Amino acid sequence: MPIQKPSRRPAPAYLGCTPDKVAVRDARESDCAAIAALLGELGYPAEPRVAGRRLACIRKAGGSRVLVATVGRRVVGVVGLHVMPLLHRDQNLCRVLALCVSADFTRQGVGTRLMRAAESVARRAGCHRMELTTAPERTDAHAFYRGLGYTEASLRFAKTVTRRRPPCRQRKL
User: Fold this and answer.
1) Per-residue pLDDT at 10 exceeds 70
2) Per the structure, how many domains does the chain have?
């Protein structure tokens, strides 16, 4: 499926979104429809029940969390995190699993609030570093991350190891 570029349009002025009106909290089951919609905006469509299953799986995984940004009662952004120990260093690493802000709320501090909250979680978990991946064509995202102090640090390789996509399940290695 092709990756959709997020809209550059700012939120309508009547929404009056300012960074001080953005709250960040742990995701709840009741957020699944909003999370599914956000994932769809990012180019990864999911039904609310599928988003709910993924959220439950992430909650069960040690060191993983999903945070949402809200304006009033509306969920307007989401970030997933996973903290993991490293074999080659005596440190923990925090990986951003996904970050998405509703197109109606981009460029209003929502993404920054989510990333700052994620960084705070990482520091409390003893992480020395955060990492994330982003598609080469997401140039707006690259500028956003650079603005937060992130730098290009490595080259990533990936390989599909199954013929089908199994649902998220916790399995021992």
Assistant:
1) no
2) 1
